[in-house]
Amino acid sequence: QVQLVESGGGLVQAGGSLRLSCVASGRAFSSYVMGWFRQTPGKEREFVAAISLGSGNIYYADSVKGRFTISGDNAKNTVYLQVNSLKPEDTAVYYCAASNTHYVGVFGYEYDYWGQGTQVTVSS
Questions:
Q1: Which of 32, 41, 70, 80 is the most buried (most CB within 10 A)?
Q2: What is the SS3 assignment for the chain?
Q3: What is the 3 state secondary structure string of 32-47?
Q4: Rounded CA gap, 105 and 86, in Å?
Q5: Contacts of 101 (CB under 8 A, 6+ apart)
Q6: pLDDT at res. 1
Q7: Helix or strand or coil: residue 88?
Q8: In this structure, what DSSP letter does residue 4 have?
Q9: How far apart are CA 5 and CA 65, in angstroms?
């Protein structure tokens, strides 16, 4: 069983930055694929970015390429999402997820564990 706890969300002006963190409990953290998703009311959960902590493979949604950076620290059981050049449309609850698969998935059903989410609000 893996428990995920996100932090780092908040209110920021357009063009600003935040660093979201996700701390995972449990063993074998370095074997997981870790992903970030986001969701706004009335919309489906949307893939943002993911990283394979074993291989280092990374994948981003087109909407965040060049602005967001995902990284992991195996020693701290933590994955980060650096979000820069924020836009009002980035406003959402951001969720961290962990997958037992060996590939970087972009769909929610490919992930086994989820955090509670952290709110990011971008004002214009």
A1: 32
A2: CCCEEEECCEEEECCCCEEEEEEECCCCHHHCEEEEEEECCCCCCEEEEEEECCCCCEEECCCCCCCEEEEEEHHHCEEEEEECCCCHHHCEEEEEEEECCCCCCCCHHHCCEECCCEEEEEEC
A3: CEEEEEEECCCCCCEE
A4: 24
A5: 33, 110
A6: 82
A7: helix
A8: E
A9: 24
pLDDT at 29: 82
Place of tokens 């428990």: 3
Alpha-carbon span 102 to 4, nearest angstrom: 19
Amino acid at 14: A
The residue assigned the tokens 């980035």 is: 90
Amino acid 76: pLDDT: 93
Between CA 67 and CA 109 the distance in angstroms is: 25
The DSSP call for residue 16 is: -
pLDDT digit of tens for each residue in the chain (124 aa)? Answer: 899 999 999 999 999 999 999 999 977 888 899 999 999 999 999 999 999 998 999 999 999 999 999 999 999 999 999 999 999 999 999 999 999 888 899 999 999 999 999 999 999 9
Length of the chain measured in residues: 124
The pair of three-digit structure tokens given for residue 48, joined into one six-digit string: 């943002």
